[in-house]
Design the sequence.
């Protein structure tokens, strides 16, 4: 967790904190579940690689005809052999195979960690988007109330002859526009809340109550330090480093394909040979020498995979550097934007109040009121969006920078 961040004092869901949303999104993520299952598979493959060199029990039974010199006939030959067998190639290649499997396991584990980071980042985006749309819906609802007050004032002035009936028509248009904006805001809120509910596996109805949260003020981390931490600790980088280790071990495995295939089996044999009982130790050795020149292509393929992993590591480091730097710049920009938007909202609110007073006293027109109200409503929405974007930007840094 980074020290030195800015968390705005904005409402949060009463039944679902940001941390809970992130944890639930991780548990509910298909990508995370797939990555974790892949890590379990790699762990099993490592166990198999470590046990490859263990000798195996071998048992043979042979029954066949055999010439009988005594009566120019045939007799049966039956032999039973029990022993242990081992592949010399398995013993020679075991260390390299274990290196490959261990590196693949580490890469799979780090990929699972990367999937967790992605799920937490997505949950952060969904969480603040849902909060933002709820706040905007409330602003649009307040706008309806304000437009209704303007219409009532226009009716009173029209009845008293202080303003034309056109003012009422204009107020009706403003009220209709407010209802339309509220309908769109409600749809956006429903979509955002349902998206968060699906990602976190909660009931959308439970995301209807908000609680206030305290403000925490500090400084954002320095860019160089944040980038250095990300390059050293982000799972995407460590996963690719493990993949490179695996590819290097794969080259060693490919080079050992030139070795002859040798299997040795030793044990004890008993049975009947030429009608005479026989028994004693037995040894069987089997050697295969490949004639096809496949070693060089296998080595070339493994080297190509190593080059791909190295290129991917370079690209990932560049991507992370840009991502962290961009996230920090965005957070600082959102801080400035939120402050400016709040000042704009306050100024627009004062301007609206002044125009409303002027309209009641006959110093302003209905056009002035409508324009001032639209300006204020947009400024209020902009201030809310900027505030939630600032909170989201800073929360995102906490996720993507270890």
Sequence:
């Amino acid at each position: 967790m980074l020290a030195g961040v800015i968390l705005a004092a904005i409402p949060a869901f009463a039944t679902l904190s940001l941390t809970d949303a992130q944890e639930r999104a991780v548990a509910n993520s298909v990508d995370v579940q797939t990555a974790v299952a892949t890590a379990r598979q790699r762990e099993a493959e490592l166990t198999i690689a470590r046990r490859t060199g263990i000798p195996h029990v071998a048992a043979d039974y042979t029954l066949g005809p055999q010439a009988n010199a005594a009566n120019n006939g045939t007799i049966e030959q039956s032999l039973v052999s029990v022993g242990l067998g081992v592949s010399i190639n398995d013993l020679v290649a075991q260390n390299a195979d274990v290196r490959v499997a261990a590196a693949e396991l580490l890469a799979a584990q780090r990929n699972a960690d990367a999937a967790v980071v992605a799920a937490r980042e997505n949950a952060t985006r969904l969480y603040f988007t849902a909060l933002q749309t709820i706040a905007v819906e409330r602003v649009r609802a307040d706008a309806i109330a304000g437009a209704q007050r303007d219409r009532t004032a226009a009716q009173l002035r029209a009845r008293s002859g202080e303003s034309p009936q056109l003012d009422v028509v204009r107020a009706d248009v403003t009220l209709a526009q407010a209802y339309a904006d509220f309908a769109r805001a409600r749809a956006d809120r429903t979509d955002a809340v349902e998206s968060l509910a699906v990602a976190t596996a909660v009931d959308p109805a439970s995301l209807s109550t908000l609680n206030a949260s305290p403000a925490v003020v500090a400084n954002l981390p320095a860019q160089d330090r944040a980038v250095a931490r990300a390059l050293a600790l982000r799972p995407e980088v460590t996963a690719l480093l493990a993949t490179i280790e695996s590819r290097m071990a794969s080259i060693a495995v490919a080079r050992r394909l030139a070795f002859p295939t040798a299997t040795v089996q030793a044990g004890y044999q008993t049975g009947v040979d030429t009608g005479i009982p026989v028994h004693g130790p037995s040894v069987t050795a089997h050697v295969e020498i490949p004639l096809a020149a496949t070693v060089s292509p296998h080595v070339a393929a493994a080297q190509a995979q190593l080059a791909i992993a190295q290129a991917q590591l370079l690209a990932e480091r560049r991507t992370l550097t840009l991502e962290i730097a961009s996230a920090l710049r965005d957070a600082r920009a959102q801080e400035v934007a939120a402050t400016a938007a709040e000042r704009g909202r306050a100024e627009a609110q004062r301007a609206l109040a002044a125009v409303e007073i002027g309209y009641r006293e006959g110093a302003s027109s209905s056009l002035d009121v409508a324009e001032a109200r639209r300006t204020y409503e947009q400024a209020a929405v902009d201030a809310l969006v900027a505030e939630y974007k600032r909170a989201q930007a800073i929360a995102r840094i906490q996720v993507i920078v270890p």
In short: The chain has a mean pLDDT of 84. The radius of gyration is 38 Å. The longest strand covers residues 73-87. Helices lie at 18-28, 30-50, 88-159, 166-200, 223-233, 235-255, 295-360, 366-400.
